[in-house]
Design a protein that fits this description.
Elements: H1 4-13, E1 21-24, H2 27-36, E2 41-45, H3 59-66, E3 69-73, H4 80-83, E4 90-91, E5 94-95, H5 98-113, H6 118-124, E6 132-136, H7 142-153, H8 158-166
Parallel strand pairs: 1-2, 2-3, 3-6
Antiparallel strand pairs: 4-5
Helix pairs in contact: 6-7
Length: 179
């Protein structure tokens, strides 16, 4: 914070850059920095998803209150929210443990009831938080990019989000359409 941070603030203050921030996989690190440094945005990978919403405790409200932008990376938690709870599914860079497979299966069951692809819901969910300014889904081919565009624009009924909350699969305070 005494070196590189000061240099980045100076570059921004001189108009040589528009913004700068930090990218990590833990919202707690982002919050630590947000409370101690002048930054504009954070790249938060895999920590505000259908499976993980602990960042709602303090970090996302802090960002919202202070006008800090969040770029969400890894909205599929290393793949399980794109593939579903299949054999070999990954969660946070390792094979998904049984409790994550179980929770994913429950979320997928709700999505299936409403005719929604789990992947579509997983990609759209983080975008509803007012501090989220962008999402990086991690596409690696033209086909995946086209699929991502389709997933992001597919209509999802508001009732799906309400059902996920009613079943305890999504935090009550998570911003969603219709809430």
């Amino acid at each position: 914070l005494d070196g590189g941070h000061k240099a980045m603030v100076a570059l921004r203050d001189q108009g040589l850059i528009d913004a700068f921030g930090l990218g990590v996989n833990e919202w707690e690190v982002c919050q630590f920095v947000a409370e101690r440094a002048e930054v504009d945005l954070f790249l938060l990978a895999g920590r505000y998803t259908l499976l993980e919403q602990e960042a709602l405790n303090t970090f996302l409200p802090l960002c919202e209150d202070n006008g800090l932008g969040i770029v969400i990376g890894g909205p599929y938690n290393s793949g399980i929210l794109a593939t579903g709870p299949v054999d070999g599914a990954y969660f946070n860079y390792v094979p998904a443990p049984p409790e994550i497979l179980d929770k994913t299966a429950k979320i997928k069951a709700v999505c299936d009831r409403y005719g929604v692809n789990l992947r579509d819901a997983a990609l759209q969910f983080p975008s509803f938080h007012p501090a989220v300014v962008s999402i990086i889904p991690g596409a690696t081919s033209r086909q995946e990019i086209e699929g991502t565009m389709e997933s992001f624009t597919t209509p999802i009924p508001e009732e799906l989000w309400a059902a996920l909350k009613e079943e305890g699969l999504l935090r009550i305070e998570a911003p969603v359409p219709g809430a």
